[in-house]
């Protein structure tokens, strides 16, 4: 039975262990907050897109991926706060009393140590810990590779093509999904037919280059960029060549898990040089995917 997704106004009161946060990326720190919680309380859209639209970040993952990752962590219900100007004006005390205690019936609450909530972000873990209606577990910030894990750090790593760091912080491969669209069939004429995705402007995209990845669980060589060898006039594309697999994917949603960056994007003298490099890329991607082992998360990701 899958996770239940409920809008906050429709949530029923029941005894709950509630993990609260935006959880963009559901990284290793978020996972510790969510650990053993039966309910995850999150915000949609991202609060900054309402409070300070100019400062709103590109998201690490769309809601559908967040839902699936949260489900994989064992939560039973994902309660979504429809975040708008009205909700942003709710006082922190009202959030604790009216929403957590009365509406949801929270008996235990889990948050990260830097979690802030309520009007002007006046609510903090200390306020939650002082409430008598529920107990509060405050999860310390987590370090990976010597630095604190944050959604901001992950966004920067993904955009720079540093998938190794991003995946270490996420505790899983970075995921991107989108509808497969009709391309110019250039890959097919070169012997490498690809499934093409036009990424959303709202989401962070890996830096230009070629990656080893899994596309819907199948090994793939993926190019992110604008095709410097051919003047196509097309914008940014994510092009996935599914290794040893042919299927008509047009119009379907493809989910791509980025495992390793193989090289940066480059311009070749002509089609022959490009084809030779594509053969090398495919073999490199095949090897990386064959050797890939999912990360084993412990209580201390360091």
Outline the structure in words:
The chain is α/β, with parallel strands linked by helices. The chain has 2 domains: 4-141, 3-Layer(aba) Sandwich (Rossmann fold); 174-291, Riboflavin kinase-like (Elongation Factor Tu (Ef-tu), domain 3), CATH 2.40.30. Helices cover 28% and strands 26% of the residues. It has 10 helices and 14 strands. The protein has helices spanning 28-34, 47-51, 63-72, 85-88, 92-104, 125-129, 151-159, 163-170, 186-189, 271-291; strands spanning 4-7, 16-20, 39-44, 77-82, 106-112, 135-139, 143-144, 147-148, 174-181, 195-197, 209-215, 218-225, 237-242, 253-263. The chain has a 6-stranded parallel beta sheet with strand order 1-4-3-2-5-6, sandwiched between helices. A 6-stranded antiparallel beta barrel has the order 9-10-13-12-11-14. Strands 7-8 form a two-stranded antiparallel ribbon. The longest helix is centred in the C-terminal third of the chain and has 21 residues, at 271-291. The chain is elongated, with a radius of gyration of 21 Å.
Salient structural properties:
single chain; 302 residues; alpha/beta; Rossmann fold; Elongation Factor Tu (Ef-tu), domain 3; 2 domains; six-stranded antiparallel barrel; 14 strands; elongated
How would you briefly describe this protein structure?
With 302 residues, the protein is of the alpha/beta class. It has helices at residues 28-34, 47-51, 63-72, 85-88, 92-104, 125-129, 151-159, 163-170, 186-189, 271-291, and strands spanning 4-7, 16-20, 39-44, 77-82, 106-112, 135-139, 143-144, 147-148, 174-181, 195-197, 209-215, 218-225, 237-242, 253-263. The chain has two domains: 4-141, HUPs (Rossmann fold), CATH 3.40.50.620; 174-291, Riboflavin kinase-like (Elongation Factor Tu (Ef-tu), domain 3, Beta Barrel), CATH 2.40.30.
């Amino acid at each position: 039975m899958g996770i239940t997704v409920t809008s906050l106004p429709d949530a029923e009161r029941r005894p709950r262990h509630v993990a609260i946060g935006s959880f963009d990326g559901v990284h290793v720190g978020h996972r510790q907050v969510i650990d053993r919680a039966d309910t995850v309380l999150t915000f949609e859209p991202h609060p900054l897109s309402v409070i300070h639209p100019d400062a709103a970040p590109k998201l690490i993952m769309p809601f559908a991926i967040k839902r699936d990752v949260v489900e994989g962590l064992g939560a039973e219900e994902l309660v979504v706060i429809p975040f708008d100007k009205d909700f942003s004006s709710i006082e922190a005390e009202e959030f604790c009393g009216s929403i957590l205690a009365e509406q949801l019936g929270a008996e235990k609450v889990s948050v990260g140590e830097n979690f802030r909530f309520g009007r002007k972000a006046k609510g903090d873990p200390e306020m939650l810990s002082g409430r008598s209606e529920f107990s509060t577990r405050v999860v310390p910030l987590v370090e990976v590779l010597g630095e604190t894990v944050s959604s901001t750090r992950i966004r920067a790593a993904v955009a720079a093509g540093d998938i190794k760091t991003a995946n270490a912080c996420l505790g899983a491969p970075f995921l991107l999904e989108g509808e497969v669209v009709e391309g110019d069939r250039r890959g097919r004429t070169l012997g490498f037919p690809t499934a093409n995705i036009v990424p959303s402007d709202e989401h962070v995209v890996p830096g230009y280059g070629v990656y080893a990845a899994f596309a819907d669980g199948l090994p793939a060589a993926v190019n992110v960029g604008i095709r410097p060898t051919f003047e196509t006039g097309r914008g940014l594309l994510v092009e996935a060549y599914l290794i040893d697999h042919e299927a008509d994917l047009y119009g379907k949603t493809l989910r791509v898990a980025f495992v390793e960056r193989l090289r940066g994007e480059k311009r070749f003298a002509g089609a022959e040089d490009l084809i030779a490099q594509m053969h090398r890329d495919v073999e490199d991607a095949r090897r990386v995917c064959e050797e890939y082992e999912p990360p084993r998360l412990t209580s201390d990701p360091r």
